[in-house]
Write a structure and sequence with these properties.
single chain; mainly alpha; globular
Length: about 90
């Protein structure tokens, strides 16, 4: 997966989380982030990988995200690995 596609998926995940009050509250509570931190780190690849990790940790949220954005459920993990600079052997 190319970096640009990984970033797009991660940015969709950020939007998905912040536009869902329950998810946003959980994300902020679990990560200690606030809206300023999110805004300041929106282009940080590690932050974006961690956002995807948050969704990957709860399958119902992951599947809802993938369904909403018409993504195959394996794409967020591939995007996370790409953002972390890991080699993806399976795409």
């Amino acid at each position: 997966m190319q970096q640009e596609m990984a970033e797009t998926i991660a940015l969709q995940a950020v939007s998905f989380i912040i536009n869902n009050e329950t998810l946003c509250t959980r994300f902020i509570s679990l990560t200690g982030s606030d809206q300023t931190f999110i805004k300041d780190n929106i282009t940080n690849a590690l932050f974006l990988a961690n956002v995807l990790d948050f969704l990957l940790a709860h399958e119902p949220d992951l599947l809802d995200f993938c369904d909403t954005h018409a993504l195959q459920p394996n794409l967020p993990i591939i995007a996370k690995r790409t953002l972390m600079g890991l080699v993806n052997e399976v795409t």
